[in-house]
Amino acid sequence: MKARGLILSMGFALLCATVGAQQTPPAGRGGGGQAAPTGPHIYIRAGLKTHGPGQHDYPQFLADWSKILTERNAVVDGSLHFPKASELEGVDVMVMYKGDAGGMTPDEKATLEAFLKRGGGLVSFHDTLCGPDPAYYSTIVGGAKKHGETNFTLEANVPYTIVDTQHPIMQGMTNFAIKDEAFYLMTWSKQPEIHVLATAVMDATPTAQQAGHAGEVVPQIWTYEKQLTPAPTGQPYRAFVWMQGHNYSNFSNPQVQPMLLRGIAWAAKRSVDTLMQERPARGGRGTTDVPAAAGRGRGGN
User: Fold this and answer.
1) Less crowded by CB within 10 Å, the N or C end of the chain?
2) What b/e sequence results for 91-118 when a residue is b if at least 16 CB atoms lie within 10 Å of its CB, and e otherwise?
3) Is position 228 within any domain?
4) For residue 58, what is the domain's CATH number?
């Protein structure tokens, strides 16, 4: 057991060192001759890996997307724990990819709500939506899934229908499909309701058939805007949700990745094109746009 604990500790330390090495110095402290970043300040809340190879790889997301976002001029911090209030100071948006993130202590709820009250944004991927109290968590991100219920189509076809092609997050996108996991039996916020960007028909997996939800149309991508405290004390916040991410490879899908970048920028209250272009590399090389097939087009908020 001591050897196993030592290995886990060494692995965690290596991950932290990797992520830390990828960080861009805070604004005003550019290094290596590069200009200080001008993009949003992003905090990635990840967690320990929970599934088999290629699935629910939260630590890998923390490492990969710290680099992806830093390369696009963002200031990036993150961890495998719930952030302290001090860690969220100055953060524009918290990107969450962590199983059962809806389960929080009273202190963690207070920290999250304080962040939202000042207008901090949220981005939620996959089973970040899960937790013991979906009635509460749905009021935070618009929709939530009850932990422990059979309410998912595992390793299923997820055929997206883009229902709001005019929203800046979905610019240039067309209907497409991936293999992943989708949820049904969701608890939805009523006041306000979510703004649906894309839906999917629940695949006829054994669990969905037994539950009577095969063929049901369920929102899979949405936005949610709310204000927890009236002005002038409080500010409205934005949340963006992509329900998939069971299979980690889908984060690199040529339609998905640009959409996520636009969603993060939107939740941070920036132009959706803010994270679409890599900054000039050291040595004077040019910038790299996200591939045209991914749907770059008009800007917007």
Assistant:
1) N
2) bbbbbbbbbbbbebeeeeeebbeebbbe
3) yes
4) 3.40.50.880
